[in-house]
Amino acid sequence: MASQGSAGTAKWVYAFGDGKAEGKSQMRELLGGKGANLAEMSNLGLPVPPGFTITTEVCTYYYAHDKQYPPELKAQVDEALAKVGALTGRTFGDAQSPLLVSVRSGARASMPGMMDTVLNLGLNDTTVLALAQSAGDERFAYDSYRRFITMYSNVVLGVEHHAFEEALEQYKESKGVELDTELGAEDWKTLIQTYKKIVREEHGSDFPQGAQDQLWGAISAVFDSWMIPRAKKYRELNSIPESWGTAVNVQAMVFGNMGDTSATGVAFTRNPSTGERALYGEFLINAQGEDVVAGIRTPQDITEKARIEAKSDKPSMEKAMPESFAELTRIYGILEKHYRDMQDMEFTIESGKLWMLQTRNGKRTAKAALKIAVDLASEGLISEKEAILRVEPGALDQLLHPTIDPKAERKVIASGLPASPGAATGEIVFNSEDAEACKKAERKCILVRIETSPEDIHGMHASEGILTTRGGMTSHAAVVARGMGKPCVSGVGSIRIDYKAKTLTVGGVTLKAGDKLTIDGSTGQVLQGEVKMLEPELSGDFAQLMGWADAHRTMKVRTNADTPNDARTARNFGAEGIGLCRTEHMFFEGDRIIAVREMILADDAEGRRSALAKILPYQRQDFAELFAIMSGLPVTIRLLDPPLHEFLPHSDAEVAEVVKATGVAEDKIRHRMRELSEFNPMLGFRGCRLAIAFPEIAEMQARAIFEAAVQAAKETGAPVVPEVMVPLVFTRAEFDIVKARIDAMAKAVSEETGAKLDYQVGTMIELPRAALKAGEIAETAEFFSFGTNDLTQTALGISRDDAATFLGPYTQKGILAADPFVTIDQEGVGELVRIGVERGRKTRSDIKLGICGEHGGDPASVGFCQEVGLDYVSCSPYRVPIARLAAAQAALGKVLSGEG
């Protein structure tokens, strides 16, 4: 409901100007960002053209009442207009001394360029004469009138902009001129008649001459623009609720197009790309605001330093308008100090006087955000804690990976999902074998697949980046790529892959194996050819902010790492241990897969043990390396989890290879393949079920873990306390059977080596029943790690590899707030985690609790983990810094829900 005015009537309009205002910057929800900041600048005594804001509550009312306005609104707008007129010495709609206004949108969150604006409102065939007389410049008046007709007709009457552009171009051609500035008053008068004719033909009625009709047409157009497709899309991408609505700001016009002592411009108080502390921006002499933004004329630099750097021969504002430049510098100092953040400002200079039209916290790159936060803290404008809260954790992704040089030309051939950040260039390969061959030959490649599976792990490892035509943000390719820190673009449905011909086709372009391709995992773009890259720099500011974050967070941050390379990368990024080592990825390396297949094809336990004995030394060495790299930090190793059929051959060529390597008959291999194939492997013969049916697998892995722990402790001198994790349990009975095997193996290794073993056995809580029975399971389990990828699949009954087809409509319609595989579903899956935590702790107060699903690196989910009291989060190596910052923000009480 609307705010109450002094007489108890609903207040829908807030005035500002002449050094005072009815609003202030804290009233963003009611006045929108622009209105709140215009009020604040007025209160600060800065030169702001007077005006008023129609509140966001009117927008809500407008849509709730079939596009009708509150009954009191008209009178309040008229009263506010009269006040603006009194301050400017003009009257709205007056023939002798007309007040002209701009009408702009202003939502609570900045939505640059998404909604509509109308300038020079109040001009008509009569008031244009008065404007020409008072300005002493007929050309300026008619230039402003033709701009108004173009803008108003487009925004309010729905006449396409290009209709006016074509008429203007034809006219300029007939006159033999190139620039708008070469046209005089008489030219504009002629064009205005042409423009009015266009409006009559396209709109079906004459261009409105009444100032009140123009004003209400523009106000309605701004409210209507809240629901136009581009605004809706922007809100969807930036998690801005539709219910917020937009405000409308009506403000006295000041003119930047009144000759050479007038100008308009945009400036940032710091460089939004680098964060450098220097006025950064552009301006245009004798122009209006849209000229700078529209790119019709090339703007000039504000500072002399920037002009020299840009090698521009056009004078800077500092040289051309020194008084206005000095005033802008004074104001920018006041605003940055007041808002304690980098400001993005719009200004107009009318006949030598500077006016401020807007200020807001400026959008910036991650690199700039870091530098600005650290610098503002060093300058004493903000505290360390505020600096931590100023940087969006997810944006750090931009800093950790190579990116495409912004100056490089992009030949975009397709777009998909930005599944793993960073960019990569290489030659196209369509299978893992070719990827490995490329790597050996020291050539860079991009692995292009319809979708990837665990057996593509070596190809993914060998490639610079991965491109898939199927799968979403949490598909196998996306999850593994993020873990490896490799760029990935997934779900590019427009690409057709022909494995046989080794070609990919999209929109008339066909590329073959060996052709160069670039993927941008930060935008989801697929580019033809090679593109220049920029390498990441983890500067001093990064280390500084991370140090502050670590001092404030209470949760530990571990990594999901399966290889020594992953572990080293994660340590460099500040990981405090390994929260998940997936042992199955180690099974695909080189000769091991032959022994694994031998084990699966064996007829009895004896045969399986014999094959497993060949894998044992490899596993032991892998674990010893991980323990040594982590040097005393905790390492959680998950026993074999995926179904066995994933390790079996799939193609005829692979079957032939297995026959050759193992000597097992082809019939027997194919029979075993049929035997192990499953309709729904996700819910099939996997996890602890393998260890119960084939205990020798768990025994071999446990032996490898404990022997490696003894070896690493000797080599590093740091005590190793392995955490052995049993996957996919739903009952204590399963856990106890597997735990007994692990304990027996620990005892055996201890007796054989004479070493005292310190270790823990815990489980992955990834099934709803396990969360519900957590109290019982905790009687024997010493730690829980919430596997939220599978817990999400089993709780919601959604396969993450197939969900991309319908999750879009689900989030758009508000059924789900976000993709539940990206940001944890707090109400459902989160409730199961809460239950697991509470029941587990009730049984065992010191139980160690962590999370190792993809959610461990998602800022909103990290906030949830803090709230439920987990001891640590574990995420892929390249997300460790993101989790460290998110954990610090969560500890400082930032509500991160929905910001992921």
Which characteristics define this entry?
eight-stranded mixed sheet; alpha/beta; 900 residues; eight-stranded parallel barrel
3D structure, described in words:
- The protein is an alpha/beta fold.
- It is built from 36 helices and 36 strands.
- An eight-stranded mixed sheet has the order 17-27-26-19-20-21-22-18. Strands 29-30-31-32-33-34-35-36 form an eight-stranded parallel β-barrel, surrounded by six helices.
- α23 runs antiparallel to α24 (605-630) and α24 (605-630) packs parallel to α28 (695-716).
- The chain is elongated, with a radius of gyration of 33 Å.
- Residues 895-900 have low confidence and may be disordered.
- The active site is at 476 (tele-phosphohistidine intermediate), 852 (proton donor).
- One of its GO terms (molecular function) is ATP binding.
- Catalyzes the reversible phosphorylation of pyruvate and phosphate.
* Proportion in helices: 40-55%
Could you give a short account of the major beta sheet? Answer: 8 strands, mixed
Query: Tally the helices: what do you get?
Result: 36
Strands across the major sheet, in which order? 17-27-26-19-20-21-22-18
- Overall pLDDT, averaged? 91
Determine the N-to-C terminus distance: 30 Å
Secondary structure: number of strands: 36
Shape: elongated
Write down the Rg. Answer: 33 Å
Strand content: 15-25%
Q: Kindly name the structural category.
A: alpha/beta
Q: Quaternary status of these chains?
A: single chain
Low-confidence stretches: 895-900
